[in-house]
Amino acid sequence: MKKKCLRNNYKKIRDEIPESTRKEKSRAIFSRLKSLDEYKEAKRIFLFVSMGSEVETIHWLDDLLKEKEVLIPATKKGDSEMKMARLLSKDELVENYWGILELPEDLAQAREETVCDLIITPGLAFDHSGYRMGYGGGFYDRFFSSHEGFRLGVGFHEQLVHEVPRNAYDLPVHAFLSETDCLVF
Ligand SMILES: Nc1nc2c(c(=O)[nH]1)N(C=O)[C@@H](CNc1ccc(C(=O)N[C@@H](CCC(=O)O)C(=O)O)cc1)CN2
Ligand SMILES: Nc1ncnc2c1ncn2[C@@H]1O[C@H](COP(=O)(O)OP(=O)(O)OP(=O)(O)O)[C@@H](O)[C@H]1O
């Protein structure tokens, strides 16, 4: 119950950042991302495609697709295992059952990949030790336990909190990047 309450609070904080501010911050986060060594050195980058008030990554794809191999989440309804698949063009994206842009199932299956260098991770909140809280599906915790790569949490400064509750299976991100913070854990 406590976690659910926290999730709602964190979501509210993010939702309340005005859209124009979120857009501006998201642009700043992308330009900071491009200056990180982990980005420069990465050949294959896993990137979530934003939904709702998340850091707006959809516009990052224009640049990323030119510079890197881009992998995006591939999920199936009723299955909490998240896979990753290669995206070649933004035109391939279609809305899934949550309204999140993903590859259609057949393409996702055909383009499945298992290794990547940098995992760009969303969250509702990140703490000062790199632990994160997501929507509660356990998608990223499972994904981290079966995929190597540098785990970079991205969020707005408002999403950096003192401490989020931890469970035994939680794996922290290696670094957190916002428009004003770059914390390495
Ligand atoms: N961009 C993105 N993709 C992702 C995740 C994520 O957190 N962000 N996920 C990481 O786990 C998985 C999907 N998990 C989800 C968990 C909950 C809801 C959900 O409750 N959606 C609400 C609206 C949320 C909002 O507006 O912020 C709904 O459907 O009403 C959606 C997806 C895989 N893909
Ligand atoms: N590595 C794992 N293996 C099996 N089950 C797991 C694993 N990680 C998490 N889970 C399950 O997923 C559920 C949700 O986990 P948690 O509350 O940490 O989600 P979250 O990190 O907020 O969500 P998400 O990762 O989707 O953003 C847990 O109750 C747990 O049962």
What does this structure look like?
The chain is built from 6 helices and 13 strands. With 185 residues, the protein is of the alpha/beta class. The strands form 3 sheets. An 8-stranded mixed sheet has the order 6-3-2-1-7-10-12-13, sandwiched between helices. A 3-stranded mixed sheet has the order 9-8-11. It has one domain: 3-Layer(aba) Sandwich (Rossmann fold), CATH 3.40.50. Strand 8 (125-127) and strand 9 form a beta hairpin. It is globular and about 40 Å long. Ligand FFO is lined by residues 48-52, 54, 73, 75, 82, 98, 100, 122, 134-135, 137, 139-140. Belongs to the 5-formyltetrahydrofolate cyclo-ligase family. It is an enzyme of class 6 (ligase).
Question: Secondary-structure blueprint of this entry?
Answer:
Layout: H1 2-15, H2 19-34, H3 37-41, E1 44-47, H4 60-67, E2 69-76, E3 79-87, E4 94-95, E5 101-102, H5 105-110, E6 112-113, E7 118-121, E8 125-127, E9 132-133, H6 139-146, E10 150-154, E11 160-161, E12 175-177, E13 182-184
Parallel strand pairs: 1-2, 1-7, 7-10, 8-11, 10-12
Antiparallel strand pairs: 2-3, 3-6, 4-5, 8-9, 12-13
Protein name: 5-formyltetrahydrofolate cyclo-ligase
EC number: 6.3.3.2
Enzyme class: ligase
